[in-house]
């Protein structure tokens, strides 16, 4: 899974470079999750998970609190959760997750981003069957063997535990994200470089050099849309 982790890091680095958009996307997601359940992370596991993920992107506490307060205030702004699937250059597959208060606008913008950048929209299910929802937790300060022992004691069956560069990366079932992170935190880890549920491709493809710039432009266009929360793909970015 090494290359997949590098792809996640690439995506995260790109988002970190545009903090205002990252903050706005998290504020929207936190508001939606807080409104759907209890606006208290101690009572709402989904909200707690979003906040934990926001922290790995360095989202300021005041933005998190403001989004929760908006949900508590009874604001009536409603958002739909949407998933779009499509294809990019060199047979690449792309999943786009969005939160929107205007479905027609979002569908039009996503379709335009694909069409103007060498891709095309697919029907529901045309791409997602080639991806697996996976919890990914990354951190420093422990060895893979130590982490395996920690997870074993917590009765957590991880899909994989790897050491890459100075980090340990744990891949787990989506519903084990919170339990896995909690077990690792109790073992002394305080900071996480990533802690989220992502869509990992079952296989990866290489984009030709001629198509790489077009592919990058397509991903950037999709991620730049205000309604788009996450973009996943199956392209091997060639990093080790």
TrEMBL record:
<keyword id="KW-0805">Transcription regulation</keyword>
<keyword id="KW-0238">DNA-binding</keyword>
<feature type="domain" description="TACO1/YebC-like N-terminal">
    <location>
        <begin position="3"/>
        <end position="73"/>
    </location>
</feature>
<dbReference type="InterPro" id="IPR048300">
    <property type="entry name" value="TACO1_YebC-like_2nd/3rd_dom"/>
</dbReference>
<dbReference type="Pfam" id="PF20772">
    <property type="entry name" value="TACO1_YebC_N"/>
</dbReference>
<keyword id="KW-0963">Cytoplasm</keyword>
<dbReference type="InterPro" id="IPR002876">
    <property type="entry name" value="Transcrip_reg_TACO1-like"/>
</dbReference>
<keyword id="KW-0804">Transcription</keyword>
<comment type="similarity">
    <text>Belongs to the TACO1 family. YeeN subfamily.</text>
</comment>
<protein>
    <recommendedName>
        <fullName>Probable transcriptional regulatory protein G8O30_13025</fullName>
    </recommendedName>
</protein>
<dbReference type="GO" id="GO:0006355">
    <property type="term" value="P:regulation of DNA-templated transcription"/>
</dbReference>
<dbReference type="GO" id="GO:0003677">
    <property type="term" value="F:DNA binding"/>
</dbReference>
<dbReference type="GO" id="GO:0005829">
    <property type="term" value="C:cytosol"/>
</dbReference>
<dbReference type="InterPro" id="IPR017856">
    <property type="entry name" value="Integrase-like_N"/>
</dbReference>
<dbReference type="InterPro" id="IPR049083">
    <property type="entry name" value="TACO1_YebC_N"/>
</dbReference>
<dbReference type="InterPro" id="IPR026562">
    <property type="entry name" value="Transcrip_reg_TACO1_YeeN"/>
</dbReference>
<dbReference type="InterPro" id="IPR029072">
    <property type="entry name" value="YebC-like"/>
</dbReference>
<dbReference type="Pfam" id="PF01709">
    <property type="entry name" value="Transcrip_reg"/>
</dbReference>
<dbReference type="InterPro" id="IPR026564">
    <property type="entry name" value="Transcrip_reg_TACO1-like_dom3"/>
</dbReference>
<feature type="domain" description="TACO1/YebC-like second and third">
    <location>
        <begin position="80"/>
        <end position="235"/>
    </location>
</feature>
